[in-house]
Automatic annotation (TrEMBL), chain A:
It comes from the Bacteria. It comes from Celeribacter baekdonensis. PROSITE patterns: ABC_TM1. It is a multi-pass membrane protein. Belongs to the binding-protein-dependent transport system permease family. CysTW subfamily. Keywords: Cell membrane, Membrane, Transmembrane, Transmembrane helix, Transport. The keyword Zinc does not apply. GO terms for cellular component: plasma membrane. It is found in: Cell membrane. One of its GO terms (biological process) is transmembrane transport. This is Putative spermidine/putrescine transport system permease protein. InterPro entries: MetI-like, MetI-like_sf. Residues 66-274 form the ABC transmembrane type-1 domain. The chain crosses the membrane at residues 16-37, 72-92, 104-126, 155-174, 210-233, 253-278.
Automatic annotation (TrEMBL), chain B:
SUPFAM superfamilies: Periplasmic binding protein-like II (SSF53850). It comes from Celeribacter baekdonensis. InterPro entries: SBP (IPR006059), TAT_signal (IPR006311). The keyword Iron does not apply. Keywords: Signal. The keyword Signal applies. Gene3D superfamilies: Periplasmic binding protein-like II (3.40.190.10). Residues 1-31 form the signal peptide. This is Putative spermidine/putrescine transport system substrate-binding protein.
Amino acid sequence: MLKNRHIQGWLQASPLTLVLIGFLILPIITIVVVSFWQATEFSIIPAFSLENYEFLFGSHVTYKVFYATLKYAAITWALTLLIGFTVAYYLAFHIRSQTMQIALFLLCTIPFWTSNIIRMISWIPFLGRNGIANSALQSWGVIDQPLEWLLYSDFSVILAFVHLYTLFMVVPIFNTMTRIDHSLIEAARDNGASGFQTLRHVIVPLTKPGIMIGTIFVLTLVMGDFITVRFMSGSQKANVGRLISNDIALLQYPSAAATAVILLITVLIVIGILLRFVDIRKEL
Amino acid sequence: MSKMRYSRRAVLKGGAAVAAASALPAPMVWAQEIKDITLRQFGTGVSNLNEVGQKVKEDLGFTLEMTALDSDSVTQRAATQPDSFDIADIEYWICKKVWPTGNLQAMDTSKIKNYDKIVGIFKSGKLTPESVIAQGTAPSTVGFVEGPGATAFATEETGWMTLIPTIYNADTLGIRPDLIGRPIDTWAELLNPEFKGKASILDISSIGIMDMAMVCEAMGEIQYADKGNMTKDEIDKTFAIFTEAKKAGQFRAFWKTFDESVNLMASGEVVIQSMWSPAITAVKSRGIDCVYQPLKEGYRSWGGGIGLSKSLTGMALDAAYDYINWYLDGWVGGFLMRQGYYSAVPETSKDYMSENEWGYWFEGKPATGDITSPFGDVLAKAGETRDGGSFYDRMGSVACWNAVMDENQYMVRKWNEFIAS
């Protein structure tokens, strides 16, 4: 009987295990293996070599690009957290009727009905030298000359990231907040806590798992991105994703794989540190 | 004797064909077999046009399957998978990389009907007897081999051709004359501080580096021995100049796709940039003034051709020769020339173009009526002339050809640094 249940358990777990092995573990192993290979212009040579890593760590470009990637991730994280938390807080505590909550929440998802790329590219005519933003500011007399830094700059890259990924912060935070027992907030108020004290000592600690899940979403999305950086910076800025995509375009798969491995390790370290602070399993 | 000579159009009807007819009792059977032949062509998008495939089916009877890939994938496939294609439509610099692998077979020029009419650029390398062969991978330098099976290029015409030229053009800078308001006549203007924040260059390393070299040379900063094959030192110096300009904010953006270059120019974000000829047309078709500016240092030119896979034999090989002869026969040439490209045998294309079209595109004369593309868009109105003038004016002032360098890998790494800087 016990043995049977044992087998049953294995069988139930096996489809997911097989899917994960086939579509997650094996590709990652392949990438790691290829990262030690060598490549010429047309062929990939399956020989063990540390050349790719030597070049990667020996080039100042790598450090610069990783720094840029982390910078984009940090700034985007801070802004999406601020906006995402505010939106979720408003939805969870200021909207009383559940129908209204759901309606407003769905409203937030409307931009996601179109493709990522379209939402991103639509900023370009808006922010351009002769775009809507500049002509509006000029006609109001705020500026005399068009603002050049609106487009093809770090500003536009981060703006696009925040626009694209804030919802990934809103959803988990909102989800956690709706589970907070309202009697806890009442208790805080009864004990004389101010609004800010309630927020700091009751709501934020209880929302941490949601914040953490949102953080993981945003960090991994931003650190793995290459297309937003390319379009919004007019190809003038680089992050790690662009290094990888350039290598792939030039058929330098081993070198791309090595960069990907380092990026993966970096992201895993960042997430590992984050998970030291919060136990997200409470949430799941 | 070739069975293929009984294609519907019977391109090569002649003595040989008559001899074949007597040897082959039932031509209808062959016509049926021709229908069953499928030639697989792959190449870059520029000449892989569905219209060509349809016309081949109509005129020659067999099926031409076309696959369009980017130039890196084309190179890789030609070099590593010779059995995956019958006809490779590649650029000459790709040929330089791929030919030594032995995956393509040399073509017997005696089987090419219009061989004598192919322009000199692809044979002696000289457009006119006085011309000087430009730097870079000039088509004539990789156009011939000593014989079938040879993997090294011959230095002169030998009767065995590597690629049959199909399409080529001369590239230069595109400008917005309405926003610049003064004449532009040198590549050096790309880095002129006057256009700070309003210049762009393409983010495709192999072509971008050539445009950079044209600029550095025009500025008098660097004298290259061969812009198409720079030394590490020359590469370093070139990037130093451009990195400095980039840090000073000279560039508004870099572009990678055709559409990006059109949008940058049309929106006025950029007033001077490296550009391709059809992109100029696209900007103009929005009613915006845009010129493909001829510059005194000359053009950066590119050319493509079709090569045959080494695994092509028998009837399929005959079909491939028929296809090549048909390609040079004028219909394709006219189709391409009406989009602003050039054909390897311009004279035959003339039959497929109106006098107005021929005058505008080839002779550099003012248009006498509307000039339309094969797809029906109006490209120029009466009285307008082509930027850069006639075929001989444009192709006669080519300064360098697209090329692949010995130091390619080094250059690519420096390019990545340049983008990240």
